[in-house]
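Message: A physicist's question: would you kindly supply an amino acid chain plus fold tokens?
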Amino acid sequence: MKRIISTENAPKAMGPYSQAVEANGNLYVAGQVPLDPETMKVVEGGIQEQTLRVMKNIGAILEAAGYDFSNVVKCTCLLSDISNFKAMNEVYGQFFPENPPARAAFAVKDLPLGVLVEIEAIAAK
């Protein structure tokens, strides 16, 4: 059985997907881009500002589902430019001060809306 998670505190889905889906004690958070949920516009600034918005969006979805960052077991980070990895990592790491999740990070050709970063997460209770 699956449960669809939706919150006004994260950007609305821009296509045929859910913000997150919970199934069998796992939460699958869709890739989040740095959209401000109130304006649905990309936040101003560079990779650090965009990463912070992405992580806040993930946090809002986790909270809506009854999870938090300590429940995250895996993340996938997509970057428009791998040279942004270090700066992204500085912000990302603030959300996982202890026992960080497994992670993969990739540079990709393009991301939606021309953003610099997209991150998806899997959490478990």
Observations:
- The beta strands are 2-5, 20-23, 26-32, 72-79, 102-107, 117-124.
- Residues 47-64 form the longest helix (18 residues).
- The longest strand covers residues 72-79.
